[in-house]
Design brief:
By secondary structure, this protein is mostly helical. The chain is built from 6 helices and no strands. Helix 4 runs antiparallel to helix 6 and helix 5 packs across helix 6.
């Protein structure tokens, strides 16, 4: 009797639920956390082609979803990773995206450090996630 039950469970798990070893090995693709109409870097004549690819990377990172956006620890961890990623990008790309999002650092009479661009972009994304948590 229990052999029939094991066969039914095996059939149910494998074929009806689709829980196979290949399913567990594949990573789940999370959809973007939100949509935003970013400007296309190709439309900007001041950027070169290789510079446009850096801008596209930033735009992708900003829209990246957090695995569990209802938990603050996951969001904080995501923001730390985002900060590290943005610190590895050239300043011209950060400046382009900040200008696009209207979150440029306060313009003083001196050169704006890269960290301020990164900080403003992370704050912009954090505000998006915070609004998502509330509503």
């Amino acid at each position: 009797m229990h052999c029939i039950f094991e066969g039914l469970v095996h059939n149910h798990v494998r074929f009806l639920l689709g829980l196979t070893s290949s399913e567990t090995a594949s990573q789940t693709h999370l959809p973007p956390a939100f949509e935003y109409p970013f400007n296309d870097p190709k439309a900007d004549t001041t950027l070169k082609d290789h510079q446009g690819s850096a801008v596209k990377k930033i735009q992708k990172w900003l829209r990246a979803a957090v695995q569990n956006c209802n938990e603050l620890e996951w969001v904080d961890s995501h923001m730390e990773k985002l900060t590290k990623s943005l610190n590895g990008v050239p300043v011209y790309a950060l400046k382009f995206v900040c200008r696009d999002l209207n979150c440029l650092p306060f313009n003083r009479d001196k050169r704006i450090p890269k960290a301020e661009y990164v900080q403003n972009l992370v704050a912009w994304v954090s505000a998006r996630y915070f609004l998502k948590l509330i509503f």
